[in-house]
Amino acid sequence: MAMASFAISIFSLATVAPTCKNYRPFLSQTTYSFKSISIRASSTSLDYSTPSSVNEQKAFKPTKTNYWEWKFKDNVIDVYYEEHEHESTGSQKNILMMPTISDVSTVEEWRGVAKDILERSGKLNLRATIVDWPGLGFSSRPKMDYDADVMENFVVDFINEISSSENDLLVFGGGHAATIVVRAAKKGLVKPKAIAAVAPTWAGPLPIVFGRDSSMQTRYGLLRGILRTPGAGWMMYNMLVSNEGAIQSQYKSHVYANPQNVTPAFVQSRYKLTTEKGSRYVPAAFLTGLLDPVNSRDEFLELFSGLEGKTPILVVSTEGSPKRSKAEMEALREARGVSKFVKVAGALLPHEEYPSMVAEELYKFLQENFEVNA
Question: For residue 89, what pLDDT is reported?
Answer without folding.
Answer: 58
